[in-house]
Amino acid sequence: MKPHSIGRALGIGLRVAGRIAGQRAAANAKAAVSAPATGVSAANLPTRPVAGTAAQSHAAGQAAGHAARGVARGVGGFLRPFRRVGGILWLEVTGVFFFLPVVVFAPTLWRTRASYAHSQDALGHDHSTFLLAAGVMAVFLYLSVSSFWRARKK
Predict the structure, then answer these.
(1) Which of 35, 38, 77, 113 is the most core-located residue (most Cβ within 10 A)?
(2) What DSSP string describes the chain?
């Protein structure tokens, strides 16, 4: 996202939030002015103005919905570049963690490599260990490489 687009999205969100705050402040001021002088202070008044008609409450609800959508779009526009970078970082960290079993099973594979060719005699008692280590290493090496590959393509 271009820098001027991020600024535009943030500006729209701030304007909408300012408009909402201004409307609430005006409603509170109007309620304070219209309070009866019978000893009721402005602090005891309800913070939300009483709805007059269903049409007014519907219009207020629509305005609030538009404001919320504007703020959501502004925040979403601001976070879009971070989402891309976060996705790439997630794939790279996942690739590193997938590579750890490869590092752990490599010594076992190296130690039992002679057992692969000698499966029936005295040297071949680690044949299944060799095959298991090779299988685990192959799966996790594939997962690690594919995770880095996907991060590079993003």
Answers:
(1) 77
(2) --HHHHHHHHHHHHHHHHHHHHHHHHHHHHHHHTS-SSS--GGGS-SSPPP--HHHHHHHHHHHHHHHHHHHHHHHHHHHHHHHHHHHHHHHHHHHHHHHHHHHHHHHHHHTGGGTT-SSSGGGGGHHHHHHHHHHHHHHHHHHHHHHHHHHH-
